[in-house]
Write a structure and sequence with these properties.
With 141 residues, the chain is mainly alpha-helical. It is built from five helices and two strands; from the N terminus they run αβαβααα. A two-stranded parallel ribbon has the order 1-2. The protein starts with 23 loop residues before the first helix and ends with a helix.
């Protein structure tokens, strides 16, 4: 979001139950995509309790169920993804899942950035952002 948004947004990442480390395959996937991994760390969303956000998007089903109420009534949505850290198999199989989830996230961010935000009401904007998280027919099969 930070790179694709070209300064329009400042994105943060946190979790309901942080692992305490950034998964090495997540670091590799970001580096392979030429994204900076400097300063990345595992953190709880509790660090952002008093922060005002315009958008809060959960990506993990566990977070969706326990997401706190954020001040300021941000647009909220859930974009569920398979947790690549839970995948078992060979290193190559795991890396493939990390790359696939990265691509899926990047696609949804691109759709989000293409929304005509200035012309949508809060209600319509939230509806559109939530629709981005709906599985496609291909994903349902």
């Amino acid at each position: 979001m930070n790179r694709l948004g070209n300064g329009r947004f400042e994105a943060f990442s946190a979790g309901s139950k942080p692992a305490g480390y950034v998964h090495p395959l997540a670091i590799k996937t970001l580096q392979d995509a030429k994204l900076s991994t400097e300063g990345l760390c595992s953190k709880s969303w509790e660090e952002f309790n008093d922060q005002h956000f315009d958008f809060v998007i959960t990506v993990c089903d566990r977070a969706k169920e326990s997401c706190p109420i954020w001040p300021g009534q941000p647009v909220t949505a859930h974009w569920g993804f398979e947790d690549p850290a839970d995948v078992t198999g060979t290193e190559e199989q795991k890396q493939r899942v990390f790359r696939r989830v990265f691509t899926e996230i990047q696609t949804r961010i691109s759709l989000f950035l293409a929304l005509p935000m200035e012309t949508l009401s809060h209600f319509e904007l939230e509806k559109q952002v939530r629709n981005i998280g709906q599985p496609t027919m291909e994903q349902k099969l």
